[in-house]
Design brief:
heteropentamer; A alpha/beta; B alpha/beta; C mainly alpha; D mainly alpha; E alpha/beta; B: alpha/beta; Rossmann fold; six-stranded mixed beta sheet; disordered N terminus; E: alpha/beta; four-stranded antiparallel beta sheet; 37% helix; binds adenosine-5'-triphosphate; binds leucine; binds magnesium ion
Amino acid sequence: IGGGGGGGGPEGLVVIGYPESGIQLFRDYYSASDGSEEILVPDGMRSGSMPGQVGNDMANVTGTAPAAGGPNQETFNQLFEDEYDAAPGVFTSQTYDSVAIQLLANAAAGENSGPAIKDQMRRMANPGGMTVGPDNLVEGIEAAANGEDIDYQGASSSVNFDENGDPAEAAYAIWEFDAENNATSSVETQSFAGENPDGNGPSADSGPGGSDREMSVGILLPETGDLAAVGAPMIQAGQIPVMQVNDANPAGLSVNAQIEDTQTSPDAGVSAAQSLVSAGVPSVCGSASSGVNVPVSQQAFIPNEIVGCSPSSTALSVSNLEDNDFIFRTAPSDFLQGRVMAQVMSERLEVSSVSTLYVNNDYGQQLSERFANVFSDSFDGEVYNQVAFNIGESSYSSVIETALSGPEN
Amino acid sequence: MSDAADQPVEDVANKVDEGALGAFASGVDTSVDYPLQVEGLEKSFGGITAVDGATFEVESGTLTGLIGPNGAGKSTTFNLITGMLKPDAGTVTFNGEDITGEEPHQIANRGMVRTFQIARELSEMTVLENMMLAPKHQRGETLWRSVMPGVRDDVREQEEELLERVWEVLDFFDIAHIAEEYAGNLSGGQRKLLEMARALLTDPDMLLLDEPFAGVNPTLEKKLLEHVHELREQGYTFLLVEHDMDLIMNNCEHVIVLHQGSVLTEGTPDEIRSNEEVIEAYLGGNV
Amino acid sequence: MSVRDDFTDRIPGGDAGLIVLVLLATYLAYVLAGFVLGYTLRGQLNSIATLTFYIGVFAMLSLALNLHWGYTGLFNIGIVGFMAVGVYVTAIVTKPTYVAGGAAQVGGLGLPLWVGILAGMLAAALLGLVVALPALRLRADYLAIVTIAMSEIVRFSFLSGELQQFQLFGNRVGFGGGSGLILDFAPPLEALLRGVGLWDAYLGFVDAFQVVVPRNPKPVVDGLIYGLLLLGFVAAFYWLLKRTGESPFGRVLKAIREDEDVANALGKNTDRFKIKSFMLGCALMGLAGILWLVPQGAVTPNFFRPRVTFFVWIALIIGGAGSNTGSVLGGAVFAAVLYQGPRYFQNLVTAVFPNLDSPSGFGQAISPLISQFDPVPFLLYTVDSIRQLQLVVMGLVLIWLMHNRPEGMLGYRKETASVIPLSRPKSMTADGGDDDSVRTDGGVDAAAEGGETDE
Amino acid sequence: MRGLVIGLAGIGLSMTYSILNFANFSHGDYITAGAFSGWATTYLIAGLGRADIGALLLVGAGGSVYGGTLGIGVLSTPLAVVAGIVVSGAFSIALSLAVDRTIFRPIRNEDGITLLITSVGVAFALRYLMQFVFGSDVRGTTAQPPSVSLYFIDGTVFINAHDITLLVVASALMLGVHVLLQRTKLGKAMRAMADNKDLALITGISTERVVRATWIIGGGLTGVAGYMFILWKGTLGFNDGWLLLLLIFAAVILGGIGSIYGAIAGGLVIGLTASMSVLWIPSAFSRAAAFVVMIVILLVKPSGLFSGRATA
Amino acid sequence: MSVDANTDATSGAGVEGRDDVLLRVRNLDAGYGDLQILTDVDMDVFDGEYVTIVGPNGAGKSTTMKSVFGLTVHMGGNVRFKDEDITGRRPEDIIHVGIGYVPQNDNVFPTLTVEENLEMGAYILDEVPKDAMEAVYERFPILRERKDQKAGTMSGGQQQMLAMGRALMLDPDLLLLDEPSAGLAPDLVEEMFDKIDEINEAGTAILMVEQNAKEALRRCDRGYVLANGQNRYMDTGTALLEDEQVRQDFLGG
Ligand SMILES: Nc1ncnc2c1ncn2[C@@H]1O[C@H](COP(=O)(O)OP(=O)(O)OP(=O)(O)O)[C@@H](O)[C@H]1O
Ligand SMILES: Nc1ncnc2c1ncn2[C@@H]1O[C@H](COP(=O)(O)OP(=O)(O)OP(=O)(O)O)[C@@H](O)[C@H]1O
Ligand SMILES: CC(C)C[C@H](N)C(=O)O
Ligand SMILES: [Mg+2]
Ligand SMILES: [Mg+2]
């Protein structure tokens, strides 16, 4: 039994969360409402299985997500499909880029050392030098090992880091669920370039390089827990550059990748990170959710001088970490996504009153906040309620009821 | 019930006589001294009135028997006096102070300690630990005293003193050979002994014993009784619930008969023995 | 009947010796594992530090729990609640005051860490009081349910958006909702060393350590020293609780565990004793929580799921409730074998058999086993899922212990609740009865003698 | 609605609590186990021929099949649902008997706390074993069921077919148990055993038989409750039962341990508290509110609201 | 006339010769956990006989009773009833062969009413025998008065009567009574003993443990003295009462 749906509620809903709880949440939503609200969801919900799991075609839902809008997106998609026989999911291209750039930096640094790799990150990523992408990653590694300068052009974006270690430009896809095919389809892509699309920030001028050694890299992503569904394809994507290098052995280099599971939980994440530290990994691709990324960076990466490059942690707080420049990410900050969402809500969906439902963690809290600010300040919209929900509940009827009710309840 | 109600009036007169006798027995005071006074105690459970206006006094330094048919309310009276239950009405006075409704530990600390009809030993503690627990106001019972270096030596000293007494009492009750045993492994009778010994160690002025000899082997019972008399002569006061009439008649100075929750009569054993009502209600003609 | 003759009796140094022995064995195993995994010296030290950290944390927690359950018989399954309150209060008191634009959403009162820790312990103790006052009269299993519900209430409160931020003494503070709090203040080790003026000396030592670990030795040294610090706390907890237990105070607690009415009837104010014991235990749990989480740099409410409480219980039961030695040992074994062990095991397997592709689901894992009796995918999947199976194993260990060794790993320990040994004092003449005769009772004895004289 | 599930599952907990004298913390995972077994059946029947059998048996682990895609629902695939209910009950019975035989029986004479701790072990083992087999992801199990909308003064309320199914099944089962216990000697024997096990043994009550009967009734109800819970809420994950457990405890305690009507009423009260409290307090506290109600009851009337009313 | 315990019990004053033995316990070793309490205990009860066990606290009297009823850990020896070996059988079987047992403590169901307690006494029958219940009420009128009261709220003595009543519901051939008079008021003690006499006269054999030893020995046919988990004396009740040594050691002089 659900109430609401009557007059007085918002025209639109923003639902920020992850698929695991999203399934229950949307089920409860569809049994409490006739589906007349326009719903906007961000990256976290982009999972093709949602309509099947929810038992509804979810036609009133529109999504945004950092796009795999890079120059080499197609190449990557092909690589992924060849390897795993499936379409790549959200943040897979960012994961690929994160690992690839770390390997390049490692090759250029010539040693498995965090501080050395950190200095090479921007030299490999930002413009200047040989253009490398997923298709010629192996050659790129060889060049880097020879001390050449590289400009990595990624699967997700051109991968240029700004002074915070964030991507200097970003593209956002607007997508919809495709219930027929258990997939999502992009309908439009919007690009944003920051003030410095080429990125900036401290960087080494040259790299010693070196051949015939084993590079190591850690992959710290959720195999289980709330983000299991998103994490699994990301882990697969992260292994592609590793395989590419190990198959070709450029300049006698090989890769030893250590995979650990964050279980989408901060404490498990930290202790998994500690075990990477013990294993002597100089750089890590991870972790996925901001709630885990922040403590893991603070507790394990920064003090142990390990480079952390998250492919998907989008929360604003990651930019502000006191990180001695060890923390990077290939996913753009929600500072942008919040803006995109507000714009889509207002202009594309033509909605002027909304409530947000957000997962109760860094990501949800900050994105909801950011969206609400932009939506009301720049688009004259009205935000009725911002309702937090906790992951793993067995029913969300009560939060939905609050979200569907009139202003300030 | 109605005749029970006016019974006490008659008894008060009775008691003055007895009191003189009692005072003589304790040999100290000339005035009569009643450490325990119970006045109009009432308690009911749901529909059943277990104690119904019980009024009596126990004279200092005596061994007073509390008898009555099963279900007369003896154990309940004990529970009311010692604070395990709160009375619906009535007062309990101990050493001149009103203790009605106080917590059991407060009452125990005033010097009135009881034993339980069904022995309640602390099963996973040894007999020794059971005994060491009993003495009141141990220094080490405050947290910081038992932990702080330095201060703890005081505690140690006191423990050593206590331990000697404990062993003496264990010897006396003939349970020294099971001192290291867990109390839970004792037999029915051994538990009763332990319970009595433990109560004694609290150094009470007055002991309330609820059927302490039920299930105790007669040989030992005899020995214990001797000890009770010894203690009584030292000035302890005993209130004893017991069904063994021979025991009551041969050992008590004074007997109170409880019937349906109120005092049917009281007096010396001889008086009780010949009291028609008592025979009717309790003794059943075979004394 | 008396203390079970156990292998432990033969270890030199008694209980302390045993603990040291177990710790040494554990470390040895870890070093060996690290060796197989190809850890560098730095990696070895780091893994030892991590291990020590968890040993310390679980030992502290199970000691504190032992005070509740082992001594007083209070069935507390809300441990995480007290830990959470300890950490959060410490955070609010210690976090620097709010500045707009910083990484932290909310600020704190900006007081020194030791004030924060004391406040945290106090708050945990006070929460203990609030729970205890009404709930201590309840049966053990009801208290269990009340405490676990309380810990969930605490977690929900910290999660709630309403308490995300509020004003306290004119400062913007709060619990941060689901994203938790960033603990942006000096870690405990630094605070301690600065407090005693050894910080510079310490930094010097860290530099000197470069001989062993050439690059950036600080986190390694930090980890090791912090581990030692935790072990120091464990020792302090142990000392405190042992003295508490072996005292008249502890005796009353034990009596309460057995039969509260009796203790009460003997003149002990049982409520007061229970509350004291409960609050002390809660404060220690709070402290353990603080020492566990403050160095992590951030704290989120969802850390404090009931699961952690059960971890502590398993640790205590492994070691044996009622025994302080057992608690420490249980904490160590739990941390080393059940908590950290599986990860090492998994890494070892992958190190020994590299390049194995494990199936991605149970279905793919089991079907070869069924159709062609090929167990390999299943085994791979098993190793791959060791994190989940780890919890299965914990469950099974718990069941096994309850069946076979409910008194814990050490067997039954008689930790007598008194300051002095309770044997018959020398000063007393041993006039019969204290020899180790097999008599069951004085009465029997009398009879036996009677019977003999008769013959 | 959730109250009904809680009440239904609570009966089993309440029975084992009073007869075996311990708080069974693995009860929640019996719920989950029942649900998984039942839903595997439902998937199998509903999806036979349309999807891989393995995937169906694993209830679509790893997103291999979706209940929504299979169009599962009480009206669309009634046979599959009924079979699921039956299997979930049967499986839970088998499971609880098996666990009892291997785990609880050898320590039957220990005190309640020993059993409680053991049951925590069982809970852990069971829960993560299920995670091992079925994976950790939450899956949607049903297609959106048809619903009717009712208009109330303050808005529309939708009642769907699964709400009604739950109502009917739960009421029927509760009635059934009531009759069973009232009409047979079993009920009295159960209470006698709850009172004093040794004595029950001495009077010739086959205590083991009573225990078995308890598990059979309690386990069956629990399994069905698990199935119905999933049918009603539409998603299934390995943690579902455990998350419900504390609420069930709250209900059982509220109603008075050992009282069946108590468990039902307690379930309804707790369900209502958790959903109605949203009107007065922030939704984040709705679960907390249910616990607070429970704690207050425990403190004020530890024997529960319905204690003293002999019902079994 | 004290005789060595074991020879006495086994060769037993012509006891062995009788062929109407109902209960025969031989060389029984039993205890709890791995703690042995009884060593080589022998005991016989003949048809319709009235036997009392006395002995000091902790002697193993209750343990003997419990062992007959299958409630202890059996460690050796055997128990035969009506020529059937019942060693190690479970209580629920033993009750079927015609033995009733009233334990020393905790012998009622506290939350069941008095009447329900009595009904439980006849649990193994399909229907509650109304006449048996009536007979119990006749014997213990207080039980009828309190038939709807919860047993746990009755006084110690009342509970004792209820427990007796419950055991009589099945009209057993042998009734094991563990200290039936403990805690009873004197008139009730007499009454209880009278009732036991009556029951015995009606043909039920009695095996009883009593601390009220003198009274018990006076009334019974035969008595055993147990000490330290072993037989010590066996003789007719009166003979034991007159034995100086027994009086001294076990009967308080
Ligand atoms: N459950 C038990 N576990 C361990 N030991 C026990 C248990 N019950 C009794 N004992 C021990 O067995 C011995 C005999 O006990 P039992 O109860 O048979 O004595 P009893 O002769 O009936 O004495 P009493 O007259 O005091 O009741 C005692 O030493 C007692 O400590
Ligand atoms: N908790 C209780 N609830 C209800 N009734 C009770 C309770 N306690 C005692 N009673 C009733 O109160 C009456 C007095 O009981 P009490 O135990 O005081 O008797 P007593 O004189 O000690 O008897 P006995 O000599 O048999 O031990 C009895 O009728 C008993 O049933
Ligand atoms: C994997 C993503 C859904 C993670 C999300 N963007 C976060 O920052 O938490
Ligand atoms: Mg009494
Ligand atoms: Mg006995």
